[in-house]
Amino acid sequence: MVFHATPPVDGSLAELVTIHHAFAHPVPDTVSDEAAALLEPLSVGIWACRKGEVRPASRVLVTGAGPIGLVCVQVAKACGATEITVADVNPDRLAVAVEVGATRIIDTAGATVGDTLRDADPPQVLLECSGHAGVTAQGVRALGPGGRAVLVGMGGDELTLPLSVIQERELVVTGTFRYAGTWPTAVALAASGRVDLERLVTGRYGLADAASALTAVRDTPGAIKSIINPQA
Ligand SMILES: NC(=O)c1ccc[n+]([C@@H]2O[C@H](COP(=O)([O-])OP(=O)(O)OC[C@H]3O[C@@H](n4cnc5c(N)ncnc54)[C@H](O)[C@@H]3O)[C@@H](O)[C@H]2O)c1
Question: How many Å lie between the centroid of ligand 1 and the Cα of residue 29?
Fold first, then answer.
């Protein structure tokens, strides 16, 4: 597989990029170019929700409110989830999570997931989008019997998980690697307004400023996703 942006492929930071027509999906004019650019991370969220079997009235816990966590929130909401708890250490991102559909937020800089959800009905699905080992384990512990833990975040190669909890509650733990067959769904969600991808855009750059675009999300509080327009 050749995947743009994954080493050794330089990606699409170029004025023109050639792709095989089989990989081209039409996007209606109602979807802005910026939203179209974010159909890729949206696909990660669609795949995570499919693996988590998110359905109407699901109780979902999303750990990590970066771009991936925030698309997971929106897809879970579009799937009909009625309780969407989001945990992060970044208050700015937690505020955006509420805007896009979170029904409860947890700042894990000052509280644990378990303490916060102690008196709540336990989540049925964990969409782990931080890559942080500690909050991943907290998320797994928070799941109710038969829950599904979907590990999207990529942290270290190895991770300690509470095995007794996984066994006693018969949890299903799975990873995800990108997605498959998600583009038509992604286009439909964006075109119908079920997801607001433009809300995730916090900076706009030309090709010459690509380096600033990449560092902005690391260095700017409140930044979520940079858009680089090669034609700007
Ligand atoms: N599986 C896949 O196919 C796939 C695809 C894309 C991205 N990813 C991975 O998904 C993860 C999320 O991607 P992103 O672009 O949103 O990254 P990101 O770094 O912008 O977001 C991660 C979020 O986790 C939060 N976080 C860190 N420590 C935390 C803690 N202790 N408790 C709660 N939240 C905490 C951060 O504050 C941040 O908001 C990354 O690890 C990325 O590599 C996986």
Answer: 31
**Position 33: which residue type?**
D
The CATH number linked to 163 is: 3.40.50.720
From atom 36 of ligand 1, which residue's Cα is the shortest distance away?
A: 64
Does residue 90 lie in a domain region?
yes
- CA-to-CA dists, residue 105 to 131, 141, 200, angstroms: 18, 17, 18
Residues with CB under 6 A from ligand 1: 44, 63-69, 87-90, 93, 108, 129-132, 134-135, 152-154, 176-178
State the total domains in the chain. Answer: 1
Q: Kindly give the number of the ligand 1 atom that is closest to the alpha carbon of 108.
A: 32
Distance 129 CA to ligand 1 centre (A): 5
- The predicted-structure confidence for 108-164, as pLDDT tens digits, reads as follows 999 999 999 999 999 999 999 999 999 999 999 999 999 999 999 999 999 999 999
Cβ–Cβ under 8 Å, residues 219 and 202: no
Amino acid occupying residue 50: R
> Is the pTM of the predicted complex or chain greater than 0.90?
yes
Run of H or E including 81: none
Establish if 185 belongs to a structural domain: no
Two tokens, residue 104: 């409860």
